[in-house]
Amino acid sequence: MGFLGDPIKFIGDWLKSLIAPLNLPPVWETFLSTLTSVIAVASFGLLIVIFLIWVERKVAARFQDRLGPNRAGKYGLLQTFADMVKLITKEDTTPETADKVVFNIAPVLSVVSVLLIWAVVPFAPTWFGTDINVGVLYIAAVGSFGILSILMAGWSSNNKYALLGAFRAVAQLISYEVPMLIMLMVPVLLASSMGMVDIVARQDMWFIVVAPLAAVVFLISAIAEVGRTPFDLLEAESEIVAGFHTEYSGMKFGMFFAAEFLHIFTVGVLFAILFMGGWRGPGAEQFPLLGMVYLMAKSTVGYFIAIWMRSTLPRIRIDHMLAFNWKFLVPLSLAILIVTAILHKLFAATTLYIPAMLVGNLVIFLASLGALRAVAQRQRKQRKPFKKRPVAKAA
Amino acid sequence: MSTVQIVFLFVGFMILLAAWMMVSRSNLVHSALWLVVALFGVAVLFVLLEAGYLAVIQVLVYIGAIAILMIFAVMLTRGDVESLTHITNRYAGWAAVMGAFLLFGLVIVLGQWPAFQTTSPEAIESANPVLDLGMAFVSPDGFTVPFIVASVLLLAAFIGAIYAAFPRKKGE
Amino acid sequence: MLLDYLPIAVLVAVSTILAVVVVALGGILGPRRKDKRKSEPYESGMRPIGPGTRKMPVRFYLIAVLFILFDIEVVFFLPWAVVFRQLGLFGLIEMFVFILILLVGYVYAWKTGALEWE
Predict the structure, then answer these.
(1) Most A CBs within 10 Å, among B5, B44, B58, B68, to test the A interface
(2) Concatenated DSSP letters for A86-144?
(3) Chain B contact for A170, CB < 8 A?
(4) pLDDT tens-digit profile of A21-61?
C-alpha cells in the first residue's frame, strides 16, 4: 500500500529492517519499537501545542473583532515560537523561602500528567500507543496527577495567595471530576467495555446521537476540569494575582501554560473519541491516515466550543461554581446514567432505539429546566421587596 | 531472573524507600508526597499482577482522592511551616535493636510455615478481568451482598464525615 | 496483557525526561540576577505580611470527603456498566438499591448544608 496508505506501518517496517541485521533478542525489539512509538506520540503532543496556541489566539481574537497575532511570520504562525524563545530566556526566579524540590517538580508533573493521556488515544484502527482494557478510567486516574501538581505548586511557593489559589483550584477540580466520571460511564455502558479502541469500534451510531445530554455534561465538566473560562478561577489574573503559579516564571510557567493548552485539546480529542465516533468515517479502515484526519477534525469541534465559551462567558464565582456542580450536575448526571441504562436495556436491538433514547434525554432536559425554574421562582418570592431609597441629587 | 522479577524487585525497593522516607521526614507535606510515591509503587505492583483495573483504581482513589485529602488535612491543622516534632527519642537505639530481633524471629518462624514453601496456585486466567469482576458483583451467588453492604458503608462514611465537620450546635 | 502497560511506563520516562530537559534549558539559558526583592514572596508589590501559610476553612476538607465517596461509588459502578449488556432485572435492581442508599447520604448532605458556601 506504500507510504501514503499507512505511513506508520511503513516507517515501522523500515526501522525494523534497520535493526534486524543486529540480531537482537526479541525483548529488545519490542522495547525499541515501543520506544519509537512512544516518542512519536509524545512529540506529537508537544508539537501540536505550538499550533494550538496559535489557533486559540487567532480564534479568540476573531471573536473579539480583531486580528490576533499577524506579525511574526505569515499569519502570525511563528508567534508561538517567539513566545517560547522569550519564556526560555527569562530568568528562573525561585523565592527564597520556597521548597525547592517540590517547587521544581510541580511543573514537570503537570506536563507529564497530560502527556500520559495520549498513550491510550486511538488515532486510527492500528495507530495507538496501547490498548489497555481500562482506558477510560486510566484517563481519569492520570488527571489526578495534574491535581497533585497544582497542590504542590501552591504549597511550595510559600505564598499565601498561591496557596489559597491552589486550594480553590483543587476544590474545583475534584468537584467537577465527579460528574465527569459518571458521564464517562455512559459510553462504557453503551459499548460494554472500558477500552478506548472498543468504544470507537462500537460506535456504528455515534454516541452523541444516542446520549446527547451525557455528551454535553461531559464537555462542561471536562472544560471545568481543565480550568477554562467560565471556570478559570485557577488563574484568574484579575483576582488572586495568578493563583497557584504566582511565583513561577520562565520556562516553568511555560510548562504549566503548555500543559493547560494541551489538556484542553486532549479534552476535545476525548470528546471526539467517546461521543463522536473517533476515527470512524468513510474509508478510514483502509487508509489509517484518513482516520487520523477524521479524529483531528472532530476534536476541533470540542476545542472550538471551548474557545467559544471562553470568549463569551464571564467567570463564575467559586461558590456558584461548586453549587452548580454539587447541586445540579451531580444529580443530573446520575439521572442521565439511570435513564440511559433503563432505556438501553429496554430498547437495545429494536428500531425504536434512537428515538427512545432521544426522548429520554429530552425528558431529562425538560425536567431539569423545570426544576431550575421552580427553584428560581421560589427564590424570587422569598426576596424582600425593593425599598425605595432616596437618590442623591446633583445639587 | 525474568524481567517481571527485576521490575518487581525495583518497585518493591522503591516502595520500601518511600515508606521509610515518609515516616522519617519532619516536614509533614514531604511525608504526604512520599506517601504518594509509595501508593504509586503499589499501583505498579497491581499492574505486575495483571490486575489493571485495580491499578487504575489505586491511582484514581488513593492518589487522586485520599492522598489529596491527607494533604488538605495536613495543611488545615498546622500552624507554621516547620514542624516541631522530633523524629526519634532517647530510646531510638534500643528500639532498633528490639525491632531487629523481632524481625529475625518472625523470619525464622514464618520460614517453617509449610505454606511458605509451596508456590500459591496461579490466578485464574481470564480474557477480560473487568467483565469477570462485573459478573461477580451482580450474580446472587457472587458478591452481591458485599456490594450492597459496601454502599451502606459509604452511607455511613457520608454521614460520619458531615457530622464530624458540622457538629450539632447547642441550642439549635 | 502485561505488555500493554509497557508503552505507558516508557511514556512516563520519556515525558519526564522531555519536561526536565525543557525546564533545565530554561534555567540555563536565562540570566541569573539575584535580587532581594525578587526572592521575596509576591504580595502585589508590598512587603509580605504574616506567615506564608495559614489555616484553611473546613469546607475544603468536606469537598474532598464528598469527592472520595462519589469516587468509590464510581469504582463500584464501572464493572457493572461493563457487563450491563448481559444483565437481567436482578442486576438493574441491585444497582438501583446501591444508588438509592447513596442518594440518602447525598440528600442528608444537602439538608445539613454541607453543600453550601462552598
Answers:
(1) B68
(2) HHHTS-----TTS-HHHHHHHHHHHHHHHHHHGGG-EEETTEES---TTHHHHHHHHHH
(3) yes
(4) 777 677 777 788 888 888 888 888 888 888 888 888 888 88
Predicted complex: ipTM over 0.90: no
For A340-374, b/e burial (b = at least 16 CB within 10 A) is bbebbbebeeeeebeebbbebbeebeeebeeeeee
Does some domain include residue C20? Answer: yes
The pLDDT value given to residue C46: 47
b (16+ CB within 10 A) / e for B61-83: bbbbbbbbbbbbbbbeebeeeeb
Task: Check CB contact under 8 Å for B4 and C2.
Answer: yes
Reported as a single tens digit per residue, the pLDDT across A87-133 is 888 777 777 666 778 888 888 999 999 999 988 888 888 777 788 88
Contact residues on chain B for C6, CB-CB shorter than 8 A: none
CB C83 within 8 A of CB B134: yes
Query: Distances in Å between the alpha carbon of A106 and those of A99, A237, A244, B82, B140?
Result: 11, 20, 11, 20, 47
- pLDDT (tens digit, 9 = 90+) per residue, A190-204? 988 888 888 888 888
Number of domains in chain A: 1
C21 touches chain A (CB under 8 A): no
pLDDT at A390 over 60: yes
The verdict on A179 touching C (C-beta cutoff 8 Å) is no
Tell me, yes or no, whether A101 lies in a domain: yes
Count how many domains chain B has: 1
In whole angstroms, what is the distance from residue A167 CA to residue A173 CA? 10
pLDDT given for residue B14 in this prediction: 95
Q: What is the pLDDT of residues C33-88, one digit of tens each?
A: 766 666 655 555 444 445 545 555 777 888 888 899 999 999 888 888 888 888 87
| Domain contains B93 | no
CATH code: domain of residue C64: 1.20.58.1610
Cell of A104: 521544581
DSSP for A318-353, please give it: HHHHHHIIIIIIHHHHHHHHHHHHHHHHHHTTSTTH
Name the nearest CA neighbour of A117 among A279, A229, A308, A274. Answer: A274
Question: Is residue A375 less than 8 Å (CB to CB) from chain C?
Answer: no
Q: How many structural domains is chain C composed of?
A: 1
Mean pLDDT of chain C: 79
pLDDT at B75 over 60: yes
Please answer yes or no on whether B36 and A148 come within 8 Å at the CB atom.
Answer: yes
Name every chain A residue with its beta carbon within 8 A of the beta carbon of C101. none
C41 touches chain A (CB under 8 A): yes
**CATH code at B21?**
1.20.120.1200
A218-240 burial code (b ≥16 CB/10 A, e <16): bbbbbbbbbbbbbbbbbbbeeeb
Kindly tell me if the per-residue pLDDT of B31 is higher than 60: yes
- Between B75 and B9, the more confident residue is B9
